[in-house]
Amino acid sequence: MNSIAKIMETMEYGPSVEDSGAVREWLAGHPRWGHFIGGKFTKPGKGFDTIDPATGEVLAHISQGTVGDVTAAVRAARRAQPGWAKLSGHERARFIYAIARTIQKRERFLSVLETMDNGKPIRESRDIDIPLVVRHFYHHAGWAELRDSEFPDHAPLGVCGQIIPWNFPLLMLAWKIAPALAAGNTVVLKPAEYTPLTALAFAEICAAVGLPAGVVNIVTGDGETGAALVDAKVDKIAFTGSTEVGRAIRAATAGSGKRLTLELGGKSPFVVMPDADLDAAVEGVVDSIWFNQGQVCCAGSRILVAEQVADAFETRLRHRLSHLRMGPPLDKSTDIGAIVHPVQKARIEAIVAEGIAAGAELVGGETGDGCFIAPGYLKNITPANPAMAQEIFGPIATLSSFRNADEAVELANNTRYGLAASVWSESAAVATDIAAQIRAGVVWVNCANLFDAAAPFGGMRESGFGREGGRVGMLDYLAPPPVKPAKAADAGRLSAMPHEGASAGGIGIDRTPKLYIGGAQKRPDGGASYEVKGGLVPFGNRKDIRNAVEAAAKSVKWAGMGGHGRAQVLYYIAENLSARAEDFARLTSKPEVDAAIRRCFHYAAQADKFDGRAVHAKAGHVTLVLPEPWGVMGVICPEEAPLAGFLSLVLPAIAMGNNVVALPSQQGALAVTELYQVFDTSDLPGGVVNIVTGPHADLAKTLAQHDEVAAIWSTPAQRRLVEAENVGNLKATWTPAPRDWLGPQAQGVEFLDHAVQWKTVWQPYGA
Ligand code: NAI
């Protein structure tokens, strides 16, 4: 007989299956789906079945979107956009609010549908996914209401193409659609081929609340439909998915003028310090990698534990692992549901097998019939093991240890990704010290996988760029206040000639200016110069760029100097520039020198004021949204206004703590070479500003390809090249619109916004 004690020990439950009657009735009424275009569903076309991965049951037939379907949807969105943007913020807010409210009323239905289409446990879709969807629409109804006062003179981008994955189908839809609509854009969204059903149910909700036709369009299909959307006449592409497809989209949109945000893969570290609360940390692992079967881009998939507590931690982890229940996703007591699709299951198995072949030992992780894989982890795994580097995207973590805090940080950052991290320590000083050193867009201190509409989410490095959520997420759907356009000047072709000094056989005094690298004047590698008005300047080459990037990467003091310290240097530059104003005016003009000095004052002022904020996203936590420098930035300067244009770009970048490799105006470079002395006498640490003169096209290519460069600002002339060449490490790129570089529109927060990446740090607060 079962005693209560025995029940408590075994924790055996009877089945407690959520009722799927309403969903089944709905599916029976909709066996075949078309697309949702211009407020109506199209006639279903050729396509594929979407299945319940837990049972293999066919749920519905889905249409494969063709180029024609995508074009029709983009047209409908284009037609609807001016009307939607013309509504007042309040009117848009009412629609978004109505969407939130309707989803809230249909929470149970949508949770069941999501679980059936995706395989995730009902507990998760009911308690996490759908409530977060509702929260996202409410939050963005608020941004619609406040757009004009919070983002004065900003405008919507137009039509946004949005492509989402299958791991959080309706939540990813909400992350994409809510901010886009709040800003005044219209959208064409393509859900993932494995999980289109909640997007189609969402289309019904749009129709039910009377959203104007064409504001939201849903086109279903696979990667080909996605690629057609990328190529369509849209103003922005927002993508969440694999890094591989992210790269393809970067290449496909290069030079097209489309705005782009990418939220890609991860291999996020989960760091357990020696003084961590081990039981809490083990629960953190459950929330990290065994949440949603590990199919989470920000899953804490690399568990790194302090050597001193590694055994104790693993004992607890194994115990907890043995109590996780894998089973039917609709059962309310299921912890681990089904993997989304057999293809994905095979992919997970292949990576785990590779890991085992390379010497790792698998604990748990047995594969079941159908789409089931039990939770587990790989131990005795070396950093070189492929399973340690690749995103497994399944319920299998890696477990390894570290000796001290420095090694923890080194291992945590030993990845090409930078999406998220989780840090566990009972000492606030230790936890925040580690959190500050980890290069990731989101860091959770003593918590894991928390999300909120007010807390920006997004990656660094190969995890992509752009943020979703909160104020900074809104900026990715808005165009900055318009500038008075100015035509970008063209330098024409430059031709290299032997260096003056070299031609004099080393006897004469070499008065040709040099490059400025690591705080010193350096001869160009090729020993050549080119002619500009007023003299000769070095003809830099790709080796010079590499040296400059190396010098910039090595100079680590600057970011740590703080806003005040950097402001002091900028004021000092202004002072030294003023002292030599006449020399500079001879090379440029007096108004240009005045503008250059104003830039120094402006960014000295901003250095300690352009800052982040704290948001109270969840009770018991404070979420810090912090601007962080990119690290090494490449800056290609405008041809016109050589001095003011150069400083208008370089100063905001360095004010935020970046080190810069700058390519000055090709024809106006002489004036910039005069700055070397100003920098030398202004306490600017060597390596913060590096200057390579020469042909932009050649130099920009090397700069864009270099993996140490994290972000690059381009000119319109180099934009296509820079965007096409940066696919290696997926640099963030920005091309400021040509403007009067002497005027007030050449300075301000627009520049600072692009000089930082946002890091969201979740901390316990008042818990
Ligand atoms: P995927 O990147 O191929 O699919 C994501 C979305 O992009 C889907 O809607 C898909 O139809 C679309 N797509 C595919 N090729 C496209 C193209 N050339 N142009 C435009 N859109 C395209 O991801 P997949 O194959 O489903 O999963 C493979 C791996 O990607 C996973 O194992 C995981 O490692 C990673 N992944 C990461 C996600 C994240 O949230 N960061 C989400 C899904 C997958």
From TrEMBL:
Domain Aldehyde dehydrogenase per the UniProt entry, residue ranges: 46-478, 537-713
Keywords for the protein's UniProt record, in alphabetical order: Oxidoreductase
SUPFAM superfamilies, A to Z: ALDH-like
Highest taxon of source: Bacteria
Active-site residues per Swiss-Prot or TrEMBL entry: E263
Family: Belongs to the aldehyde dehydrogenase family.
Name assigned to this protein: Aldehyde dehydrogenase family protein
Organism: Paracoccus pacificus
